[in-house]
Specification:
The structure holds two protein chains of two kinds.
Chain A lengths: L1 E7 L11 E5 L9 E2 H11 L9 E2 L2 E2 L3 E5 L13 E2 L4 E6 L5
Parallel strand pairs in A: 1-8
Antiparallel strand pairs in A: 1-2, 3-7, 4-5, 6-8
Chain B lengths: L1 H38 L1 H8 L13 H6 L1 H4 L5 H10 L1 E5 L5 H11 L3 E5 L24 H12 L4 E5 L5 H8 L4 E4 L4 H14 L3 E7 L2 E7 L7 H4 L12 H4 L4 H19 L8 E6 L4 E6 L18 H6 L2 H5 L18 E2 L1 H9 L4 E5 L3 H6 L6 E2 L9 H14 L9 E5 L5 H11 L5 E4 L2 H8 L8
Helix pairs in contact in B: 6-7, 6-12, 8-9
The chains are: A mainly beta, B alpha/beta.
GO molecular function (chain B): ATP binding; metal ion binding; molybdopterin-synthase adenylyltransferase activity; molybdopterin-synthase sulfurtransferase activity; thiosulfate-cyanide sulfurtransferase activity; URM1 activating enzyme activity
Keywords (chain B): ATP-binding, Coiled coil, Cytoplasm, Metal-binding, Molybdenum cofactor biosynthesis, Multifunctional enzyme, Nucleotide-binding, Transferase, tRNA processing, Zinc
Protein name (chain B): Adenylyltransferase and sulfurtransferase MOCS3
């Protein structure tokens, strides 16, 4: 499944400072669909190069990270259960506090 | 040389005297103005209260019509929008990178009462982004400087100075005097505190943030939209809360976000347009992209604004925001103390030892781009993150130094570690001891201490 993943607010530092990743994620054959839960595991394994605790806590993202599926807060689409489709854009952004 | 030095001292002296005179004059002017206001309460009300009747049926005076004419010419803003603005009151918390442009535009556009809270003073390293302040105000309170700039742009509105740190003890009293709150602060505990206070008081909150090359903006607690806690019920780990003083920020980035905050506040105050509530604007300066995303609505389970929540004024006053977020409300620097005393050395003592010709290796563990700004002579730059993988470089530098200085007396060279403020150097020394470099010692207070105690000519940043 072709997906575009974007990291911002400093999270890109965890994946070699690259903000945009066009990736191909193969869904689990048995499940035959991909959810955000699966994608997080895939990201942690394949993209996060350092300090994984700065990206995830337990099986979700750490506090202070917003997840957007096609420009929409994942809270509105089922959070970890959000189903993903071909060409979806998933954004992970860390909230900023500076000023 | 000596005559040049005494000439410089004379000039510095004169500058100090002139500054003191100016400060004295400012104070006398303020006192006289206050006296005048006291003597002529009617005249004062003409200045600060914009709603005088002039016979045009809208309360705008001829001067106001002229001053705000370009607003009045906008069909969808017009007299009604401007009248609403003139009757509104807005508080900006923080007169820094975000607050600077926000305050300038809010003063210029004719907000009836404009308040500013800050406890800080203007510093030279603020000037690249905090454009409301001028060099003449370095060392003076930001609130005073910001208020003076606002008054020089628009003398017809009321500017209120709150020269204090916002705390749970004074936040309710200060925020309750305003219709709209603008969060232009720089730290996580302040953001939770301001949001909670806005929920308790039922005020809309225009929240902006900026760091590096990125900015974020949204409106909380407005039109049944979420509050800050609905979005971030659990505070992030402190390691995820980067500060402009550590990570840097391109000056114009908070400038853009601050302008957008002014815009959102103006829209709410004038009741024109669609506020950025339930949506968030994400700004990436480097790729020149702005993304506006839909965010969750008010959370029924929110501990502060949720359906079953009863977060009271008293609970707010008693809430410990520093403990909740594990970080301080003011932008104070962290000072760690991780090492036993004999693993540490003061910069003055090190200077003496180097002067006596002690054989040593100095490792600077700051990131490479910090090292490029300023470094001590002969320091070896190995950033903390690559210390383990590059330990061989330290071993060979130590061997080299021993060979070079071999006089038969000293058996081994000392290993000293420095960073910017003396925190990372302690972490590095812990790591080095684990790796077998048992002579490693940390320079207390880092380059900042070196600049303070040993070499005042060393630039700080």
């Amino acid at each position: 499944m072709q997906l575009t993943l974007e990291f911002g607010g400093g999270l890109e530092l965890l994946c070699d400072s690259v903000k945009i990743h066009d990736v191909n994620v193969i869904p689990n054959l048995e499940a035959d669909k991909l959810t955000m839960k699966d994608l997080l595991v895939w990201v942690r394994t394949n993209l996060i190069k350092e300090r994984p605790e700065m990206f995830m806590k337990d099986d979700s993202v750490r506090p202070g990270v917003l997840v957007l599926v096609n420009d929409c807060d994942w809270e509105l689409s089922g959070q970890l259960d959000t189903p993903l489709e071909e060409k979806d854009v998933v954004v992970f952004i860390s909230t900023l506090h500076g000023g | 040389m000596e005559s040049k030095g005494s000439e410089a001292a004379r000039i510095l002296n004169e500058i100090e005297t002139l500054k003191a005179t100016r400060s004295d004059l400012d104070n006398r002017i303020s006192a006289l103005e206050a006296q005048l206001r006291h003597l002529n309460p009617e005249e004062n009300s003409v200045v600060s209260c914009p709603s005088i009747s002039t016979g045009f049926g809208h309360g705008l005076s001829p001067d106001m019509i002229y001053r705000y004419s370009r607003h009045l010419l906008l069909p969808s803003f017009g007299v009604q929008g401007q009248s609403n603005l003139l009757k509104s009151s807005i508080l900006v918390v923080g007169a820094g990178g975000l607050g600077s442009p926000a305050l300038l535009y809010l003063a210029a556009c004719g907000v009836g009462q404009l308040g500013v809270v800050d406890h800080d003073v203007v510093e030279l390293n603020n000037m690249h982004r905090q454009v409301i302040h001028t060099e003449a105000y370095i060392g003076q309170p930001k609130v005073k400087s910001a208020a003076a700039s606002c008054r020089s742009i628009n003398s017809t509105i009321q500017i209120v100075e709150h020269q204090e740190a916002l705390r749970t003890s004074n936040a309710l009293e200060i925020l309750s005097q305003y219709d709209i709150i603008v969060d232009a602060t720089d730290n996580a505990p302040s953001r939770y505190m301001i949001s909670d206070c806005c929920v308790v008081l039922g005020k809309p909150l225009v929240s902006g943030a900026a760091l590096g090359f990125e900015g974020q903006l949204t409106v909380y607690n407005h039109n049944r939209g979420p509050c800050y806690r609905c979005l971030f019920p659990t505070p992030p780990p402190t390691t995820a809360c980067q500060r402009c003083a550590d990570s840097g920020v391109l000056g114009v980035v908070p400038g853009i976000v601050g302008c957008l905050q002014a815009l959102e506040a103006i829209k709410i105050a004038s009741a024109v347009g669609e506020p950025l509530s339930g949506r968030m604007l994400l700004f990436d300066a480097l790729s020149a992209r702005i993304r506006i995303v839909k965010i969750r609505g008010r959370s029924l389970q929110c501990e502060v604004c949720g359906e079953n929540s009863a977060f009271t004024r008293q609970q707010f006053k008693d809430f410990d925001y520093e403990k909740f977020t594990q970080s301080p409300l003011s932008e104070a620097s962290l000072e760690l103390n991780l090492l036993p005393e004999d693993y540490r050395i003061h910069s003055r003592e090190l200077k003496e030892r180097i002067g006596k010709g002690e054989s040593h290796v100095l490792v600077d563990v700051r990131p490479d781009h910090h090292f490029k700004i300023v470094s001590l002579p002969n320091a070896l730059n190995i950033p903390l993150s690559s210390l383990e993988s590059r330990s061989a470089e330290i071993s060979s530098a130590l061997k080299e130094e021993e060979k070079r200085k071999d006089s038969g007396f000293e058996s081994s060279a000392s290993l000293y570690v420095i960073c910017r403020r003396g925190n990372d150097s302690q972490r590095a020394v812990q790591l080095l001891h684990k790796m077998g470099f048992t002579s490693a010692r940390d320079i207390i207070g880092g380059l900042e201490a070196w600049a303070r105690d040993v070499d005042p000519n060393l630039p700080t940043y």
